[in-house]
Each structure stands twice: as structure tokens, then as C-alpha cells.
């Protein structure tokens, strides 16, 4: 039986799900198993510990809590579970993913401050401190590490230090950096971070995890219960008592994630980050050579997402360029900025420099086929 022979390799340059290895794809094909069997439940402990180890967390102090859902579920879980009664959330917001956290506050009717900054700049820390000073009822500060909508890197260590100075808990959406750009949960002043198996770990959608401080989770036992399915303490407590997820886990995704973890440790944190960096540099060099402008200044980029601005050429059509590339095995992705037209090329997944070289051959063909003049032009 060779199940994989017919599966074509695709290069995904979208911001997750990412290109997976054949061994990770194949790991999903297992005999049917009831996840309540000891054989399956036994896999959970190592998996949960590995997820903490990736961010260098001390297993006594930090734990991971798994959920069956896509990455947004983690933001939902942390925000609705970790806020004590009568306290406020501060969202340090310079992009689409932090805006998602604001929307979660709105849906749960939680008191919040949406501290807005331009999407192409890091947040102003003086401003962040001022808001913390003026609002002693802020109990939870949340931001995004790599704003995937633009690719900007936020100064989480500094924001975390400020949160702690004013006795607030610090939660970071690390979905688009975890297991790629190295994170040290303790040194980075993080109380809660999160990710989803289809991004940095290069497995599949359906398994998401919050990694956080046990003591704070224990304390949240008495906080208002705002959701049944998405409550951090309930899921944590169930793990503690039984070692299992409260409700049916995504069995096949978990097998794939276990294989992805093996491959993560085999590649190694530094080598993996070096590979993503190689890919990212190749993307930027390719875009630069073709004259594309980007939204984020080089020194502020998180090293994983490039956000290029549409050229001022009447023949430019993102859809046409996308379709041309897609038919040839490369997936590019639209931007997520409401004020300008952009597309994204991302360095996630099991890809390397050569894939980017191959991509630019196709991408140039696509532009030529559309009649776009290169190097591309901008009006100003
Ligand atoms: C991908 C991503 C998410 C999760 O998105 P889903 O579509 O729910 O998986 C959350 N935050 C960031 C920063 C992301 O890049």
C-alpha cells in the first residue's frame, strides 16, 4: 500500500496552513482507535510536555492545554477565561489579529481598551505604560507577536515587562511565530502564549494549544465562567485529573503532530529558524529585484511574512497572478490591511530556498502573462 505516491507536493506561501512533509501527511493514516483507549491517552503527556519545551518553559511552572479547533480558539479561550470579575483587558493593537482579540472582548461583553497603533509601526511603549498607569483595573494585557496581516514583529518582552510592572497578566498570540522564531516564555515575560498545529509545527489544522502559567490557571478557577467549551480552567482541570482532553480530540491530527514534533526536534530550533530566515530572505530579494515595495520596514519585520504592495500597473490583477501560480503548484495570499492593497508571501512550512527560486520563475511568468511591466512601477 503506497498511499502517498499520488499526493503532489505544493508550495504554500500563505500564512498557514503550511506545506507539510510526506511523513507528517502519512502519520495521519492509522488504524481506527477510540481516543479513550489507554494507548491513545498515553500519547498526550509527551505531546503536552513537548509543546512547553518548544518555548523553553519549566514544566513545573508552565503547562499546555489542548483544544480541538483552529488557532483563533486559543485567543477566545485565554481572553474569556483569564479575566477576573470587574477587571479590564488591554489589547495592544497594530493589526488584524489583535483586532480579533478586541472582537472577542466585544462578543463576551468584557470591559476592554483597544489601544490602537498604525499597522506599519511597532506600538509606542510610552503610550502603553501611560494607559496601564491610568487604568489600574487592567488585569490582562494581550498582543500579537508577529502580526500575520502585515508581518510586523511586536516587542513582546518589553510589553510583557510593562504588564508585569502593573500587575497584569500578559498573553501573546504567538500563532505565527511558535516553533519558528525562537521564544523563551520566561525571558519574554509571557504568561500565556498559543499556537495551532498547522503553522510552525507544520502539521494540520484541528489541534490548538495554549501554553501558560499553571498558577494563574489555578487562580482562574474562581473567575466568571463565560464559555463552556472554551474555558481554560475546565480543560486544564480535566487534563490534570484524567490526562485527556475533555471532549473528543482530533485523533488523526494528533498523530500527525507527534510526527511533526519528532521532525521539529530532529531539525532543531536554531536550524529551523535559519531555514525560515533563508526562505524569508529569498522572498525579499525576489520582491526587491522585481521592484515591489513592502508595507513593513526591513528592521521591523518578524522574518516570516512579507507584505508587498500592489504595483500601479493597469494590468496587475492579484487574482490572475494567483491563479497562474496556483495552477503551477504555488499558493500566494491576499493581504489583510483595510487601507492598502497588498499580497503576502510567507516563509512558513517545510520549504527551502530552492522552492522560492522556483516560485519566482513562475511569478515572473505570471506577471509577463498579465502584461505587467517589471521592474514594477509605483506612481509616487
Ligand atoms: C493563523 C493565525 C491565527 C489563527 O487563525 P485560524 O484561522 O483560527 O487558525 C491566530 N493568530 C495569528 C497571529 C495567526 O497567524
What is the structure about, briefly put?
This protein is 38% helix and 17% strand. The protein has 380 residues and is an alpha/beta fold.
Beta-strand percentage range: 15-25%
The description of the largest β-sheet is:
4 strands, parallel
Portion of residues in helices?
25-40%
What is the average of the pLDDT values?
A: 96
Radius of gyration from the CA trace?
21 Å
- Order the strands across the largest sheet as they lie in space: 4-3-5-8
CATH topology label of the largest domain: Aspartate Aminotransferase, domain 2
What is the number of strand segments?
Answer: 14
What spatial form do the alpha-carbon principal axes imply? Answer: globular
Distance between the termini: 59 Å
**How many alpha or pi helices?**
12
Please name the fourth-level CATH homologous superfamily of the largest domain: Type I PLP-dependent aspartate aminotransferase-like (Major domain)
SSE order, as H and E? Answer: EHHEHEHEHEEEHEEEHHHHEHEEEH
Describe the structure.
By secondary structure, the protein is an alpha/beta fold. It folds into 2 domains: 23-265, Aspartate Aminotransferase, domain 2 (3-Layer(aba) Sandwich); 269-370, Aspartate Aminotransferase, domain 1 (Alpha-Beta Complex). Helix content is 38%, strand content 17%. The protein has helices at 22-26, 38-53, 72-81, 96-107, 125-134, 156-165, 214-219, 232-242, 251-267, 269-289, 318-327, 353-370; strands spanning 11-12, 62-69, 88-93, 112-116, 138-144, 146-147, 152-153, 169-173, 192-196, 206-213, 305-309, 330-331, 333-334, 342-346. A 4-stranded parallel β-sheet has the order 4-3-5-8, with helices on both faces. Strands 2-10-9 form a 3-stranded antiparallel β-sheet, sandwiched between helices. Strands 11-14-13 form a 3-stranded antiparallel β-sheet, covered by helices on one side. The site of pyridoxal-5'-phosphate has 13 residues, from loops. Pyridoxal-5'-phosphate is lined by residues 15-16, 70-72, 97, 144, 148, 173, 175-176, 196, 199. Belongs to the class-V pyridoxal-phosphate-dependent aminotransferase family. PhnW subfamily.
Amino acid at each position: 500500500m503506497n498511499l502517498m505516491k499520488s499526493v503532489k507536493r505544493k508550495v504554500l506561501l500563505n500564512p498557514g496552513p503550511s506545506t507539510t512533509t510526506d511523513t507528517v501527511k502519512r502519520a495521519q493514516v492509522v488504524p481506527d482507535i477510540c481516543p479513550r483507549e489507554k494507548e491513545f491517552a498515553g500519547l498526550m503527556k509527551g505531546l503536552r510536555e513537548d509543546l512547553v519545551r518548544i518555548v523553553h518553559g519549566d514544566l513545573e511552572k508552565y503547562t499546555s492545554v489542548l483544544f480541538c479547533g483552529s488557532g483563533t480558539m486559543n485567543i477566545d479561550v485565554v481572553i474569556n477565561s483569564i479575566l477576573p470579575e470587574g477587571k479590564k483587558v488591554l489589547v495592544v493593537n497594530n493589526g488584524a489579529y489583535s483586532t480579533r482579540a478586541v472582537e472577542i472582548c466585544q462578543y463576551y461583553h468584557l470591559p476592554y481598551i483597544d489601544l490602537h497603533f498604525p499597522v506599519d509601526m511597532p506600538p509606542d511603549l510610552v503610550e502603553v505604560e501611560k494607559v496601564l498607569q491610568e487604568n489600574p483595573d487592567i488585569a490582562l494585557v494581550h498582543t500579537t507577536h508577529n502580526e500575520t496581516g502585515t508581518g510586523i514583529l511586536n516587542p513582546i518582552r518589553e510589553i510583557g515587562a510593562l504588564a508585569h510592572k502593573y500587575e497584569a497578566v500578559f498573553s501573546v498570540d504567538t500563532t505565527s511565530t511558535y516553533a519558528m522564531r525562537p521564544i523563551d516564555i520566561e525571558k519574554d515575560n509571557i504568561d500565556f502564549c498559543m499556537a495551532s498545529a498547522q503553522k510552525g509545527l507544520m502539521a494540520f489544522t484541528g489541534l490548538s494549544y495554549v501554553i501558560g502559567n499553571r498558577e494563574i490557571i489555578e487562580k482562574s478557577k474562581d473567575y466568571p465562567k463565560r464559555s463552556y467549551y472554551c474555558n481554560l480552567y475546565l480543560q486544564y482541570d480535566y487534563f490534570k485529573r484524567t490526562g485527556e482532553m475533555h471532549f473528543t480530540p482530533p485523533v488523526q491530527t494528533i498523530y500527525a503532530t507527534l510526527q511533526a514534533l519528532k521532525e521539529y526536534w530532529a531539525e532543531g530550533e536554531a536550524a529551523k529558524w535559519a531555514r525560515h530566515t533563508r526562505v524569508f530572505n529569498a522572498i525579499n530579494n525576489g520582491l526587491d529585484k522585481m521592484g515591489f515595495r513592502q508595507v513593513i520596514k526591513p528592521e521591523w519585520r518578524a522574518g516570516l511574512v512579507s507584505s508587498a504592495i500592489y504595483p500601479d500597473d493597469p494590468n496587475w490583477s492579484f487574482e490572475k497572478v494567483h491563479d497562474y501560480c496556483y495552477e503551477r503548484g504555488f499558493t500566494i495570499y491576499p493581504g489583510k490591511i483595510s487601507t492598502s492593497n497588498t499580497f503576502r508571501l510567507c516563509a512558513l512550512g517545510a520549504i527551502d530556498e530552492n522552492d522560492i527560486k522556483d516560485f519566482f520563475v513562475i511569478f515572473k511568468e505570471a506577471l509577463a502573462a498579465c502584461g505587467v511591466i517589471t521592474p514594477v512601477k509605483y506612481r509616487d
